[in-house]
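Researcher: Re-running this chain for the archive, since the previous output was lost when a drive failed. Same request as before.
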Amino acid sequence: EEISGTFRKVVKEDLKKDLNLIDVPTLIIWGKKDRSTPLEHGKILHKGIKKSKFIVFEKLGHGIPKTHPEVISKVIRNNIEFIK
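Model: Regenerated structure tokens:
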């Protein structure tokens, strides 16, 4: 119970003001059908992180690295020059 309370506080913390401090190439990979974290949140990250690339998968949801590791691997390989 204590951990879940802490987790709720962390998830609710608004860090949008700090996104501009991220100054490294950042891949943002999102599933359009994500019901846990809406697509709008990914758009906010992309807008706030100067050197970001936003990749959306129309038919996937939350947890893409776990459910579709081959997709993540391919995205990283295809964007290796961007994230160097």
